[in-house]
Design goal:
single chain, 130 residues, alpha+beta, Nuclear Transport Factor 2, Chain: A, 3 helices
Length: 130
């Protein structure tokens, strides 16, 4: 990774999410990274600290939504901060589907992602396809 993060890097990060490639994702993250999920018991959602915990949280998303995809991504970077906007879609094991707009707010350190703070619209699940 370069000493600064670019919008192209954020697209590569998004591509790794869509491939469900935890190793590639973690190569973008600092060792002491933080992931704040869009849902969870804390005011920030669910907070995962450190590479092992962040990796496990990423893998858990693919467990809950085996077909998870983040499409129509748009990115911008300004200094040590960045934003990715996307449309998330995924199907749970019971067949219900989620499709929502969302975004990630990033903080960078040393050319890597130190914080991934995720937000998404709160839309009820769509019924299972019949």
């Amino acid at each position: 990774m370069r000493s600064t993060v670019t919008a192209l890097d954020l697209q590569s990060f998004a591509d790794a999410f869509n491939r469900h490639d935890a190793d590639a994702l973690m190569a973008f993250m600092t060792e002491d990274c933080v992931f704040e999920a869009s849902a969870g018991p804390e005011v920030c959602g669910a907070r995962h600290v450190g590479a092992a915990a962040v990796r496990a949280a990423f893998v858990d998303v693919w467990t809950v939504f085996p077909d998870a995809q983040w499409r129509h991504a748009r990115h911008f970077v300004a200094g040590e901060r960045g934003v990715s906007e996307w449309v998330f879609s995924g199907t749970r094991s019971d067949g219900t589907r989620v499709e929502v707009h969302g975004c990630d707010l990033f903080t960078f350190s040393g050319g890597q992602i130190a914080l991934k703070n995720s937000y998404r619209k709160n839309r009820p699940p769509l019924p299972a396809a019949s």
